[in-house]
Amino acid sequence: MSDGSSFYITTPIFYVNDVPHIGHAYTEVAADVLARWHRQRGEDTWLLTGTDEHGQKILRTATANGVTPKEWADRLVETAWKPLLKTVDIRNDDFIRTTDVRHEENAQKFLQHLFDAGHIYTGEYEGFYCVGCEEYKQPGDLVAGAGEYTGQQVCAIHSIPVELLHEKNYFFRMSTFTDQLLAMYEANPTFIQPESARNEVISFVKQGLSDLSISRSSFDWGIKVPWDDSHVVYVWFDALLNYITAAGYGQDDEKFSRLWPATHIVGKDILRFHAVIWPAMLLAAGLPVPTQVFGHGWLLVGGEKMSKSKLTGIAPNQITDVFGSDTFRYYFMRAISFGQDGSFSWEDLSARYQSELANGFGNLASRVIAMVVRYCDGEIPAGGTPRDADTAIRDTEIRVTKTADAAIDRLALHEALAAVWELVDELNGYITTQEPWALAKNPDDRERLETVLHTVVRGLGTLAVLLSPVTPQATATLWAALGGTGDVQDAQIDRAWEWTGGSHVSPLAALFPRIEAAVG
């Protein structure tokens, strides 16, 4: 297994029953920013995403649209889910589909292994099932329906009626892992994060786990149970295995040993699957549990969770077509405390674009490059003896780099960006107090002018490195204008202040131009 020198990070694999909204893109961007940061540390990094294509929900959706489930999945993957990655600039290393042969064959190997080891048995189960969640629901997970569903019990997440099912299925002896899971949570306090998510899971497991129904015989869209092809594998048991089948389980031992275990970024509504069922499955198979499961909050619009069925879903391109992918990535990583629910509004997005990106970072970059071109013919000055104000900027570069890097280790993306923005603000303040335009008027202040410009160029380059995982397009443009060495995405991010470059800058167009069009 991985010795810790690699960083394997995953998003959930998303259902293809509908097109993606900004809630899905939020998860993708968070995982991508973390992956990019770790790559820039020089770590062996692997980012996995993909699609979940089996189960009753997909079958019903496909049937309603007059196509086979596979045809429906193919259509949605190619026209919606893979294009999403380009829309928000995701640099994934792999994209897995649960209909891939590599997944189906190796998922069956895993299941057969558990069966042979005595972890699976035949039984009967009756309970309330939510097709939207693809999960049997406990009484506490149900609420009274409203409107057309008045008088019925509905899923608290999807607000649709549950179905009473009675099936003869195969069961996973999950209950036998209750104590092992609790001991693992105790021994590794960071395994489930944030703390609220950890507390929720521990409380749930302490109530005692039931065995898990892991097959269905009432429909046939899914992976066949290897020893009984009249059953298909329960969609969640199937889907969770993508994290290891993509990493080489069952077919590439070297790759699997190098990558596994992984850090999982998931929405809080699927936390129990990843923090309870999934590690129990791995313990049964004798495999290491994930490095960490992080359950982030929901995106709220008008106080409600993002949902196509409730007409609160917003397509990512509605934002990127106006503001660009960098703004999308920056806004959701900065405006929302990662791990908590966050509200989206067009007004907040527009305000932050103008104040933080256009006026804050973008204007800083334009001013610095323009002053070097105007006062030094584009040559980056070496500068003279630094004063306290100059060394203070250098100290801030080092401090915010270390603070942001430590925040990334905690998956505190919003804290990392807040730290970096301290350098943006200090550089803008430094320019205001040092007044290079005034220094340029007096030949006796030439050395001081060059020191100031040298200081702000160095600071700007550090910002380019630190913001590269979040705003890759703008920072690549800025890096080229600064004459940075190589690709900014290859610059060592945990020592960002040590960046190197050439002797001249080149003109720079506005990184975040003014947007006049009304949005929302």
UniProtKB/TrEMBL annotation:
Gene Ontology CC: one annotated term: cytoplasm
UniProt: Zn(2+) binding residues: 130, 133, 155, 158
Catalytic activity: tRNA(Met) + L-methionine + ATP = L-methionyl-tRNA(Met) + AMP + diphosphate
Top-rank taxon, per record: Bacteria
UniProt domain Methionyl/Leucyl tRNA synthetase: residue ranges: 8-368
Domain Methionyl/Valyl/Leucyl/Isoleucyl-tRNA synthetase anticodon-binding: 400-488
Root EC class: ligase
Cofactor names: Zn(2+)
GO BP field: methionyl-tRNA aminoacylation
SUPFAM superfamilies: Anticodon-binding domain of a subclass of class I aminoacyl-tRNA synthetases, Nucleotidylyl transferase
GO molecular-function terms, A-Z: ATP binding; metal ion binding; methionine-tRNA ligase activity
Keywords: Aminoacyl-tRNA synthetase, ATP-binding, Cytoplasm, Ligase, Metal-binding, Nucleotide-binding, Protein biosynthesis, Zinc
Subunit structure: Monomer.
Protein's name according to its UniProt entry: Methionine--tRNA ligase
Organism: Cryobacterium zongtaii
